[in-house]
Design goal:
The chain has 61 residues and is an all-alpha fold. The protein is built from two helices and no strands. The longest helix is centred in the middle third of the chain and has 21 residues, at 30-50. It starts with 8 loop residues before the first helix and ends in an 11-residue tail after the last helix.
Length: 61
Amino acid sequence: MKKKETYTREEVIEMLKQMQTETVKCQGFFAGHVTQLWVVKSMLGKRIEELGGESIQIKIV
């Protein structure tokens, strides 16, 4: 992705959603999974919602 000076709200939301997806796909030990969910739901998810977007949905199986 080429660096830009400014991004649209939609571009930022898509970048954050991509970060969520990449975080979910990371493998880790059990303690790491709790941290993953926190990052995906709390840190990234809240920012996406603040920007007016919809966070990715995570299914825990």
